[in-house]
Write a structure and sequence with these properties.
Family: Belongs to the immunoglobulin superfamily. DCC family.
Helix content: under 10%
Keywords: Disulfide bond, Glycoprotein, Immunoglobulin domain, Membrane, Repeat, Transmembrane, Transmembrane helix
Domain Ig-like: 23-118, 123-209, 284-369
Transmembrane segments: 987-1012, 1128-1152
Number of helices: 5
Structural class: mainly beta
Distance between the termini: 127 Å
Shape: elongated
InterPro entries: FN3_dom, FN3_sf, Ig-like_dom, Ig-like_dom_sf, Ig-like_fold, Ig_I-set, Ig_sub, Ig_sub2
Length: 1170
């Protein structure tokens, strides 16, 4: 309350011992830093001052206690050293926002700008470089996708040596390596390396082969297209466009970003690429910094601070390190300047202007010194106190004081000063009389119903007015030219009558429709006004100043700044689904001060999934049924399109519902009373075939018709606010459409007494989405409807994210807390469906869990081996075993196949084991033709779409010592039967035996002669080619799982298994480690298809040679020796059958009749041997 005003006549002077301003500012301020877990990091801070300064650090707004901290310490210059950064999933003590605070005792405190310390994640390759063949002169892009925060640590190596970067070979901001105009020197093995982020981690190597240019024209293809990018002004931006083809082209643009390049530019290389949108943000910059000020007590001072930036920075003021809270005596004027009214001694210190936007933050400080009143001056006597001080007029907002001349004025030119203050407040205000001898003053802008009280008078002050002086005339030829939407250029000439030297000019300008005029001083005959409002009319005038003061003003001139794109989206946008194929859109124009010109139209963008379209109309038709569309609206001026509204979803109906009648009654209505509100929830009508446009809620004390509220048809609950405690309310709910309102449903509730705490819950987060990032990481995002539109969190609320998988069914939820609207969940299982939900906690209030979002992690290679591997012998077939197993416990994806490894030497290298591939849906497999009385070891490896998993432990199995007695008896019986059939024609048998023997000897001799002509060099080339084509593993070509063609050979996976008796230590080809026989034999080979038809019957085949020259084109088979017993049986059967079957039919009939001798696994079969 205001006390009665006190008249105090004072006179004072500034003595000679005035304190000087003390230099006190930051010479180094902390900046954003990316730290590495376990490594040390340094946040720089140093102060320039005359006196020693105490430096402390704040983290997330609170002072750090470093007295007993072993990891963190403040260095001598004030920098903060963290010797070992700690960071884990649930403990992140070092990550946050830091600020340096410097204090000098008896002088003041200043704070630095803020800096964010982030901790790099664990290096993880999300994608690996891939091998490729590139033609000379072509371009290629090697991708290497890592954690986004580790991109800056990526470097590339070629053949394990650093890649030399230049204009032809360069890296992109994403970490990818671009090779343009490829040469033969670019061939080699490439890998990307993550350095300086903990232990060095390298990617897989990718081989780049350089092919000669064929000269043939190839279609141009974009390997890399421009991407939308946002950069801070002053930074460089790389706009890549990489093309392959012949003839080829490659363009990449690097520029120092300025506000002039913001917009849409298009780059192309013969074919057109997509449009590139470049947005420029600027960090805050000072146009005017606050200045040091001397002032007396009870006076008013203004600290000026003018800042520019994009987006527009927010400004706050700090005094001695503490935020300035606006009050009656501390006011923010013109959105940036600080006005301090009625100074007191405690206002002395350092004031800082802090500006911040998304691109950064800056600070600037100024010192305020309160001057002491000097001793009384002047040699003559001073006036006595004024007499009869009275409040002659008292109103709600002003007081008029009058008084009489002092009894002893001691002169004629006496001026007066009135000091006044609010009762109980020592902060005084001062008002001076405007003319000597005037004995009244009016104090304005007071608070109603307040009191003022008298105080003792100060020393008297004698002031004499100055004589009238000559001032300049008006400045001629004043012109104003509009340069841009926010800039006007002014120019004028010197006054014709200057009456002395012109010291400066003052420009007065005012926005049309406002009463407040603003001014600024200039020293030239022209000036460019910036920071004006767009498409706004301004008036300007100029006044010249000389040593005597201001001159005559020019006439006002008016101009309007240019229009620009709207700076705000349309307001109150609504979307109404009309039927299954139509949506109605409604909106209002942007705010008047954000239109920046005449609105010429509106642009509506809508999309379904990732597809986008544009339209300029209100009514969308021809849409798809039951489909969710996202829409937003933006305003258009002649300059372009302004910002759009947020994306809003609207889902068309599954079918065209009936709207010829009103909706049915809602199926349920529930109410939950609180102290001053009632939460109403409901379910829609059971008849879903009638259109529901929304719901009408009526409520009142004793009657439901006092108030009505309409809500959207999708809404299922509403909170009725501002109710009276302990009152009986009747509530009604009706569904409505364009025909009218349906039948209501009624409910009543009594609000709780005032003494009962209000348990109103917070609304749960909405729009929860789960974005899968990798095989073990999902990013969860959401929105909070209780936050402002910009979704900026300003209070102490936090969010709890929970997640789990339904396999197994009793899995418990895991939770994590966060203070942002996103959370990245790591450590998940690959190829697993997870559900996520979020709740918000504010103080002691907690919301319910949000609706769930689901996400399935990507696949990864199996992390465990197949389990329960068993090996058993097949009954009646001692040379055949059956391998059984179960899938891996951690398959990490769909198993697409298995590989069975077996060997007689458990310590053999893995590439020396025989392998059997099996398709992924089988859990058993037969392996035939094993050696009797031999110990085998078996391992199994599973694979999925991402690669091979680990091998199982070796399982030992020993085959029986001899053939089963049943089989031996059967074989002998067949032999005797065949022999008995020949007893009638001994002569014919002898003839046939002699003929076949002679024919066979001829074939052996001819084949041996042909084979020996092959040189050792040719044999080595063939062996090397065979090894390169088939890999180091020895695939056994008998797998049914490989789905062979109708031939009993699979030409893609089979290979020769030669008996190489070379004495070399590392032969090019080695025999299978599974011994079939101890004899060194030369087999005679016959190959048949499934019908028994002969395909090959040619001469002698030497072990180690290929069949490709003997067989049909396109097939390749390498013989594998069968057991000699089957060859003997076949030969005997052939000789005996010839007695009664004609020769042409003997071969065909016998081969088909003796098919059971063939290997059941479709291998090439050795049918006889000599």
């Amino acid at each position: 309350m205001m006390r009665n005003p006190v008249l105090i006549l004072s006179y004072f002077f500034i003595g000679s011992a005035v304190r000087n301003f003390s230099p006190f500012q930051f010479s180094t301020e902390p900046s954003d830093t990316l730290a590495v877990r376990g490594a040390q990091t340094l946040l720089n801070c140093s102060v320039h001052s005359e006196f020693p300064a105490k430096i402390e650090w704040k983290k997330d707004g609170s002072f750090l206690s470093l007295a007993s901290d072993d990891r963190r310490q403040v260095l001598a210059d004030g920098s903060l050293l963290i010797s070992s950064v700690v960071h884990s999933k649930h403990n992140k003590p070092d990550e946050g926002v830091y600020q340096c605070v410097a204090t000098i005792d008896n002088l003041g405190t200043i704070i630095s700008r803020t800096a964010r310390l982030s901790v790099a994640g664990i290096p993880r390759y999300l994608s690996q470089p891939e091998a490729a063949s590139v033609r000379v002169g072509d371009s290629h892009v090697l991708n290497c996708e890592v954690n986004p925060d580790l991109v800056s640590f990526i470097r590339w190596e070629q053949n394990k040596e650093p890649v030399e970067l230049n204009q032809r070979v360069f890296t992109l901001p994403s970490g990818a390596l671009v090779i343009s105009n490829a040469t033969e020197a670019d061939a080699g093995l490439y890998r990307c390396v993550i350095d300086n982020a903990g232990p060095t981690k390298t990617s897989e190597e990718a081989e780049i082969q350089i092919l000669p240019e064929s000269g043939e024209e190839r279609t141009l293809e974009f390997l890399l297209e421009p991407q939308h990018v946002s950069k801070v002004i002053g930074e460089s931006v790389l706009l890549p466009c990489v093309v392959t083809g012949h003839p080829t082209g490659m363009h990449h643009q690097t520029a120092s970003l300025s506000s002039q390049i913001s917009g849409v530019d298009r780059y192309s290389a013969i074919n057109r690429s997509r449009a590139l949108h470049s947005e420029s943000d600027t960090s805050p910059q000072f146009l005017k910094k606050p200045a040091n000020i001397y002032a007396h007590e009870a006076t008013d001072v203004t600290f000026e601070c003018e800042v520019t930036g994009s987006p527009a920075p927010t400004i706050k003021w700090v005094k001695n390190g503490d935020a300035v809270i606006p009050s009656d005596y501390f006011k923010i004027i013109k959105e940036q300047n600080l006005l301090v009214l009625g100074l007191v001694k405690s206002d002395e210190g350092f004031y800082q202007c802090l500006a911040e936007n998304d691109a950064g933050n800056v600070q600037s400080s100024a010192q305020l010194i309160i001057l002491d009143q000097g001793s009384r001056g002047g040699a003559g006597p001073t006036p006595s106190a004024p007499r009869d001080v009275v409040a002659s007029l008292v109103s709600t907002r002003f007081i008029k004081l009058t008084w009489r001349l002092p009894a002893e004025p001691h002169g004629d030119d006496v001026t007066y000063s009135v000091y006044y203050s609010l009762e109980g407040n020592n902060r005084e205000r001062i008002v001076n009389t405007s003319r000597p001898g005037e004995m009244q003053v009016t104090m304005q802008n007071l608070m109603p119903d307040t009191k003022n009280g008298p105080r003792e008078s100060s020393a008297p002050l004698r002031v004499a007015t100055q004589p009238e002086v000559q001032v300049p005339g008006p400045a001629p030829n004043l012109h104003a030219v509009v340069m841009s939407p926010t800039t006007v250029s002014l120019s004028w000439d010197m006054p014709l009558t200057g009456n002395g030297e012109i010291q400066n000019y003052k420009i007065y300008y005012m926005e049309k429709g406002l009463d407040s005029e603003q001014d600024l001083d200039v020293n030239t005959l022209s000036y460019t006004m910036t920071g004006l409002k767009k498409f706004t009319e301004y008036s300007f005038r100029v006044v010249a100043y000389n040593k005597h003061g201001p001159g005559v003003s020019t006439e006002d001139i008016s101009v309007r700044t240019y229009s620009d794109v709207p700076s705000a989206p349309p307001q109150n946008t609504t979307f109404e689904v009309l039927n299954s194929k139509s949506i109605m859109v409604r909106w209002q124009p942007p705010p008047a001060d954000a239109q920046n010109g005449e609105i010429t139209g509106y642009k509506i963008r809508y999309r379904k999934g990732t597809r986008k379209s544009e339209a300029f109309f209100l009514y969308f038709s021809g849409l798809q049924r039951g489909t969710e569309y996202m829409l937003r609206v933006s305003a258009i001026t002649v300059n372009g399109t302004g910002p759009a509204t947020d994306w809003t979803t609207a889902e068309t109906f599954e079918s065209d519902l009936d709207e010829t009648t009103v909706p049915d009654v809602p199926s349920s209505l529930h109410v939950r009373p609180l102290v001053n509100s009632i939460v109403v929830s409901w379910t829609p009508p059971e008849n879903q075939d009638i259109v529901v446009r929304g719901y009408t809620i009526g409520y009142g004390i004793g009657s439901p018709h006092a108030q009505t509220i309409k809500v959207d048809y999708k809404q299922r609950y509403y909170t009725i606010e501002n109710l009276n405690p302990s009152s009986h309310y009747v509530i009604t709910l009706k569904a409505f459409n364009n025909v009218g309102e349906g039948i209501p449903v009624y409910e009543s509730a009594v609000t709780r007494p005032q003494s009962v705490p209000d348990p109103l819950p917070i609304l749960p987060p909405v729009g929860v989405q789960a974005s899968v990032l990798s095989h073990d990481t999902i990013k969860v995002t959401w929105a909070d409807n209780s936050l402002p539109k910009n979704q900026k969190i300003t209070d102490a609320r936090y969010y709890t994210v929970r997640w789990k998988t339904n396999i197994p069914a009793n899995t418990k939820f895991k939770v994590a807390n966060t203070t942002t609207l996103t959370h990245t969940v790591t450590g998940l299982k690959p190829n697993t469906l997870y559900e996520f939900s979020v709740m918000v906690t504010k103080g002691r209030r907690t919301s319910t869990w949000s609706m769930t979002a689901h996400g399935t992690t990507f696949e990864a290679i199996p992390s465990s081996a197949p389990k329960d591997v068993t090996v058993v012998s097949k009954e009646g077939r001692p040379r055949t075993i059956i391998v059984n197993w179960q899938p891996p416990s951690e398959a990490n994806g769909k198993i697409t196949g298995y590989i069975i490894y077996y060997s007689t030497d458990v310590n053999a290298e893995v590439h020396d084991w025989v392998i059997e591939p099996v398709v992924g849906n089988r859990l058993t497999h037969q392996i035939q033709e094993l050696t009797l009385d031999t110990t085998y070891y078996f391992k199994i490896q599973a694979r999925n779409s991402k690669g091979m998993g680990p091998m199982s432990e070796a399982v030992q199995f020993r085959t029986p010592k001899a053939e089963s007695s049943d089989k031996m008896a059967n074989d002998q019986g067949n032999w005797k039967t065949d022999m008995s059939g020949t007893g009638d024609n001994h002569i014919l048998i002898i003839v046939i035996i002699v003929s076949v023997g002679a024919f066979t000897i001829i074939l052996v001799v001819v084949g041996a002669f042909l084979c020996t002509r092959r040189t050792t060099t040719q044999q080595k080339k063939k062996r090397a080619a065979c090894k390169s084509a088939n890999g180091s593993h020895k695939y056994k070509g008998n797998s049914k799982d490989l789905k062979p063609p109708d031939l009993w050979i699979h030409h893609e996976r089979l290979e020769l298994k030669p008996i190489d008796k070379s004495p070399e230590t590392n032969p090019v080809m080695t025999d299978t480690p599974i011994p079939r026989t101890s004899q060194d034999i030369t087999p005679f080979v016959v190959i048949t298809d499934l019908s028994g038809q002969m395909l090959t019957f040619n001469g002698v085949w030497r072990f180690g040679e290929e069949f490709s020259s003997w067989m049909n084109p396109g097939f390749h088979c390498t013989g594998q020796m069968a057991d000699s017993v089957y060859g003997v049986v076949w030969v005997c059967g052939l000789l005996m059958s010839m007695l009664w079957i004609e020769w042409p039919m003997v071969a065909v009939g016998l081969w088909y009749g003796q098919a059971y001798v063939m290997d059941n696994e479709h291998r090439c079969i050795l049918l006889m041997a000599f």
